[in-house]
Design a protein that fits this description.
heterodimer, A: alpha/beta, Rossmann fold, Coagulation Factor XIII, Chain A, domain 1, 2 domains, six-stranded mixed beta sheet, five-stranded mixed beta sheet, 17 strands, B: mainly alpha, 74% helix
Chain lengths: 395, 259
């Protein structure tokens, strides 16, 4: 059964010079606005019981989409069908009144969500218990710390029993302990077969909770698919954006290191991938470099290999000089060297290789190839980071 | 309408909160519900009854003036307050509208509901005063719920329209204050209808409060049934409420985008 389906979903905000123009338009039937499309042609279907994560930069249209799903705003074009009782956590504690006690605010909070008096009475003890506020529930909310406030709000809003739950960035509330508790509650919703749509900047949460992920960019659906694929694709694009801003500074320093070239790199290649530059974590990765010395003695040559992630993070670099590996020249003054990473431990990301042919001291550059041999890595586990580190758990 | 059934508990609790909000944290609490109108009554009675010596019936005294005054003043104040507050009911509950799946149509309703309580408090004072100083109550007084209904429906219709308009024109809040003052002085509340010059009477009769205030005085003070004008107002108020609802639902989506 399909619980949520959106087809060509659009939400445009009409921008008026002044609010009253909107009314003028309604009366005189003469358009006087510009349209800002917060959401453009978004399509997806979500089966009942599945969890959809929504990711994207700020202003990508995530909140707009969630508001549409929650029903607080209406789509401008396209179709949206949501089956079942919807409950939304769009902003915690909206509608709380500071002068009233926790209990009073729980009652009103529940009523505003559409609960009847008897339902509220039944839920009250459970909500108070979950919020862990203890006797403080009988004090005015204005005296609460911000942590207590969100705890109360979260307890109220998740106490209803919806078929479809919509959550906007609400999972990072309170202290560590409560965060875990709220995450568990969301998980219990998922386990109970509820349909959940949520957006978060915490990609780890997205990966661990969602069945499907939708990546929105400037209001458009950029990608829809499995959490691993979409999250990684999104991260790649983020890194590329970061790198673009850094690039200029890098380019400047490079131009100064030009050198008269004697020894040369003539060929380089990458092995171990699937034919399209894709690796799985744990694959063997081999970089092969061939060069010619052009009169430079073998003991005055160093080959350095640097792995760089596409956000300009130096992942790893080493050289024949550092590792004390002699370069052997054949009778044609050529050499072929393999740099092998057995069971390569890099985690998901896009990488490229920087090759440097240096003098024996590793200072003077004879030749270089930068930003070559692009490859990508995918990993299936939920580990995070640049590379897997050898570790043990001691229990 | 089905929404109203689903959210009846919400309307009830929000109205209750609305009322409590005024007394929350104050020493006299609920007493203010009575103290405030009593204070107004005293001032108006002193200025108009004692100094200007306005009389509703020839040969009657200041006490009589006070009776007539309060029978008009209290219901009108309930209206004035609700109209004023429902104007900002959407703009001040932005969060509730955008962040919670809560039908905004109920917000002006909550305000009008609250005003029923303030009106009842006022009418209780009137009834008490008539028993003590006047000639006693007659069974006609039992018609008061019908009068309140007319007043409530007017509030509702006006509230639905004003609340949306206030989103488009934020000046509405200022404007409504002036309009309500105009309505107050344009209704025979602190002066008898008999003082209105003959040639202006037709304008006065276009004002629903002209008939409404007169109806309150009929059933409470004079102990007689309301005049026919009241029944017209009653029907009219239902129509106004309905039109207000239509206007509200037609314009709400536009208003939401501007909140």
């Amino acid at each position: 059964m399909i619980a949520v389906s959106a087809s060509k979903l659009c939400k445009g905000y009409r921008l008026y010079k002044k609010p009253s123009d909107s009314l003028k338009e309604l009366i005189f039937r003469k358009p006087c606005h510009q349209v800002f499309w917060a959401l453009k042609q978004v399509d997806f279907k979500l089966e009942a019981g599945k969890t959809l994560g929504v990711i994207g930069d700020n202003g990508a249209g995530k909140s707009t989409l969630l508001k549409l799903l929650a029903g607080t705003i209406k789509p401008s074009q396209g179709e949206l069908n949501v089956t079942g009782r919807v409950s939304a956590i769009l902003e915690l504690g909206s509608g709380f009144h500071p002068e009233f006690t926790g209990v009073e605010n729980i009652r009103i909070g529940c009523a505003v969500l559409g609960l009847s008096a008897t339902e509220i009475q039944k839920k009250l003890p459970e909500i108070i218990e979950f919020s862990e506020l203890g006797d403080a529930v009988n004090r005015p909310v204005k005296n609460y710390s911000s942590g207590m406030y969100v705890r109360l709000a979260f307890s109220v809003v998740t106490s209803v029993d919806p078929d479809v739950l919509i959550i906007d960035e609400a999972l990072s509330v309170g202290d560590q302990h409560f965060q875990r508790k709220s995450l568990e509650r969301i998980r219990s919703f998922i386990d109970a077969g509820k349909t959940v749509v949520f957006c978060s900047h915490n990609l780890y949460q997205i990966k661990s909770l969602c069945d499907e992920v939708l990546w929105l960019d400037k209001g458009e659906s950029q990608m829809l698919g499995s959490p691993e694929d979409v999250v990684e694709a999104y991260l790649d694009s983020c890194r590329e954006k970061d790198a673009l801003t850094k690039q200029e500074t890098v380019a400047k320093t490079e131009s100064n290191t030009q050198s008269e070239s004697k020894a040369e790199i003539v060929r380089f290649d990458l092995f171990g991938h699937d034919g399209q530059g894709r690796f799985q974590t744990g694959d063997d990765l081999v970089i092969e470099v061939a060069g010619i010395a052009n009169g430079v003695p073998a003991d005055d040559l160093t080959l350095a290999v640097v792995l760089m992630r596409n956000d300009n993070i130096h992942v790893y670099g080493s050289s024949t000089e550092i590792d004390n590996i002699p370069i052997i020249l054949d009778q044609n003054q050529s050499f072929t060297i393999r740099f092998r990473l057995p069971g390569m431990q890099l985690l998901s990301g896009k990488f490229s290789v920087y090759l440097y042919l240096l003098d024996g001291g590793g200072i003077h550059i004879f030749d270089k190839r930068e930003n070559v041999l692009d490859f990508s890595v995918r990993h299936d586990s939920r580990e995070v980071g640049v590379s897997r580190l050898a570790h043990v758990w001691e229990v | 309408m089905s929404q109203i059934a689903n959210y009846s508990q919400a309307v009830y609790l929000l109205s209750a909160r609305d009322l409590k909000q005024r007394s929350a944290g104050s020493y006299l609490g609920w007493l203010w519900l009575v103290l405030q109108p009593a204070f107004m009554l005293l001032i108006y009675t002193f200025v108009f009854g004692v100094i200007l010596k306005v009389r509703f019936q020839t040969g009657s005294g200041t006490g009589d003036f006070a009776l007539y005054l309060m029978a008009g003043l209290f219901p009108f104040n309930a209206f004035r307050e609700a109209a004023d507050r429902s104007t900002s009911s959407l703009t001040s509950n932005r969060q509730l509208i955008q962040r919670v799946v809560f039908p905004p149509v109920l917000l002006p309703l909550v305000v009008s509901m609250t005003s029923l309580v303030t009106e009842i408090a006022g009418l209780a004072i009137v009834a008490l005063a008539v028993l003590v100083m006047g000639e006693g109550l007659t069974p006609w007084v039992l018609m008061f719920p019908l009068l309140m209904l007319a007043r409530f429906l007017l509030n509702l219709g006006v509230g639905w329209v004003l609340s949306v308009l206030n989103v488009f024109f934020r000046d509405m809040n200022q404007l409504i204050g002036m309009l309500l003052t105009l309505l107050f002085f344009g209704t025979p509340i602190i002066y008898p209808a008999s003082l209105v010059p003959e040639k202006w009477v037709w304008i006065y009769k276009l004002n629903p409060f002209y008939h409404l205030v007169s109806a309150y005085r009929s059933i409470f003070i004079e102990g007689i049934p309301p005049e026919v004008g009241f029944y017209i107002v009653l029907v009219l108020s239902a129509v106004i409420a309905l039109l207000g609802l239509v206007f509200f639902s037609k314009t709400l989506d536009r208003a939401k985008d501007l909140l």
